[in-house]
């Protein structure tokens, strides 16, 4: 099993006296106030280093001696600016001592040489904070060759960060309070419990993070004042733990320990906004709207208010009548979906999300809608801008009868939703029966036109191969297998296609998210399901608390969430955990692990929800739900629940007490939060083992540490291997010197058959009461490949068969620049 940053930070090679020396050194070079002129960590990246710097690590002894003499000469001429504003001559030995202090447990670090490069690249009167960051980027630039330099780079960033921040969470929060940033309840809590919170926080745990995680934390998650980071990572964890732990000190302590030991993480809005004056903690909002100007513009206002407060939006637009249909009130004709969606497009661009990024919204359209072709073209490259809405995301809402028609080569009739309004509220056999009745009726006011279903299917696949969308969601599967089917028909999903909840014009559904770090459950090469149960129980309880702590931007959202109380708990790092157990992703044993993880999480989540219902009562709409009748998700899939778990006892418990939450498990994308916990995203494989990763926090060259560690142990991490991986889109499969056992284990998302991705989703699906964001990776997608994949997923009952279609360009520079990801990240 490979080591991780977590192992390095907590190993026996981390002596306590070294940690004290670092703290003392930080204090000696710090002032009591934060220097607003300091430079952000995230502004430094490896692209600032020149070729000469990259080759200096291989200097000859003569060159090193000459460089050493040069450094001595420079010392006498150069000065630096300390954080208190005073000037001091550059001291070669002090820089060397600082680097050596931070190099504990790192055997391959040449401290003197790093110091020489730093002094060479320094400028006159450089602030000491920038010297640390210059040293950090120098180290990170060489991490590709010797990964321990990346560890040192992260420690330099963190040590510099610690110098700029108070080192006491309550002092940081006092400064935030004085700026009016915090809410009164949080202020009352931390001022009442200052001593306990100070004693609880453990800043040594900040050293668990790698350079990339620290950059993301500083740029996105830790709070700032006037653009300067005021919180340390542990301060942020403690702030979040206080809120989601319900201000109960025992729960706050347990939650802080779990968060700070990187066992699980809450969704991005919860990390951003816990304790803040505007405490909007939910990730996802689902809306639908009626076919009237009043409803459309009411929905637009709600969209703006949700986006302003940091929520991502999924919107059903299937009720809006098609282009050219009559408007009875004015005797005019409608313009259809495109012009309306352009207004929404500009709104989500204009109303940003808590000033962190522009808004994000996915539109869901029924495949029966006559404007389908125009809608499919809204994100296509090129074309007239007036016919494009490039900032929205697109998802199809597909009934079984359409897939049957595609498979059988039948026809497909587009029906106007104003003339056939009942189709929106029907699913399954009732939908099919009504659709067939309209077809037989053949009223031209209702049945706008009929085409070959294969033509529609080809348009859909064409768009997917050009844009990666639309998402594919199966209306009948979703509704048949929902625990909310007693409330009404589900019309759409969320921004990332994993939340499936009922919404209406009077109820905007909401979901708060969190994800479990699966590698944290691997102990000595075995998966510890007791650890998974403990984390699941804690996370579910905290997510339920978040529902009550949340500040709702609109009353319709509060109404819905208080009635149904859904939560979404997912995972990240599945492929990492499998590697830590020595299990290839594409094998039956891996499928069994996926199945058992999902089953244990679902069982534990329901058990926790029943415990909460015993104390607080069941959610308002519990009566009449499938769970109230003893039908859990496996029963809705018509399978026997996972053997070895006490399902009968759980059903009895639910019958006695009810459930506190209508929904509990959702496999969301975890783009940003996975970088913080240093995992692969969600349930996916890494797309490349060496790559440039671009996010809102900057651009960085990354290596997959587990592979590098394995190659180093076998003496195979050579220049030739590195160049081969870079030249082959981050894959090791074609290198002749890498053993087959490593090739079997270390495959990228593009190295495996995508049927394995679907099979993993199918293994989990009977225990996922919401749905799964499932990316598909194809080097050369084709109509036949995509048809086979979608049909296989649909026939086997998956609720959706596509989030994004990813193609090889993503593996050359893996990006977290897609706006949708940040909101659902958990």
Which structural category do the helix and sheet elements fall into? alpha/beta
| Low-pLDDT residue intervals, each spanning 5 or more residues | 1-61, 810-820
What is the molecular shape?
Answer: globular
Q: What separation lies between the terminal Cα atoms? A: 26 Å
Strand content: 5-15%
Give the count of helical stretches.
Answer: 36
Radius of gyration: 28 Å
Number of strands: 25
Mean pLDDT across residues? 88
Major β-sheet annotation: 9 strands, mixed
Helical residue percent?
Answer: 40-55%
What keywords describe this structure?
single chain, 826 residues, alpha/beta, nine-stranded mixed beta sheet, 47% helix
Fold and architecture overview:
There is one protein chain. The chain has 826 residues and is of the alpha/beta class. Among the domains are: 5-164, no CATH class; 329-351 and 361-477, no CATH class. It is 47% helix and 12% strand. The chain has 36 helices and 25 strands. It is globular, with a radius of gyration of 28 Å.
Produce the secondary structure layout.
Elements: H1 5-10, H2 16-28, H3 51-55, H4 61-77, E1 79-81, E2 87-89, H5 92-101, H6 111-121, E3 126-127, H7 128-141, H8 148-164, H9 169-178, H10 184-192, H11 194-200, H12 211-221, E4 224-225, E5 228-229, H13 233-244, H14 249-260, E6 264-266, H15 268-273, E7 284-288, H16 293-308, E8 312-316, E9 326-327, E10 332-333, H17 337-350, E11 361-366, H18 372-376, E12 393-398, H19 400-408, E13 411-415, H20 428-441, E14 447-452, H21 453-467, E15 471-474, H22 475-480, E16 509-517, E17 522-523, E18 526-527, H23 529-549, H24 555-564, E19 567-572, H25 574-580, H26 588-616, H27 633-636, H28 647-657, H29 671-677, E20 690-695, E21 698-703, H30 705-713, H31 719-727, H32 740-745, H33 755-764, E22 776-777, H34 783-795, E23 800-802, E24 805-806, H35 809-812, E25 815-816, H36 819-824
Parallel strand pairs: 1-3, 7-8, 8-11, 11-12, 12-15, 16-19, 20-25, 22-24
Antiparallel strand pairs: 1-2, 4-5, 6-16, 7-16, 9-10, 13-14, 15-23, 17-18, 20-21
Helix pairs in contact: 2-8, 4-6, 5-6, 6-7, 7-8, 12-29, 13-14, 16-17, 23-26, 26-28, 26-33
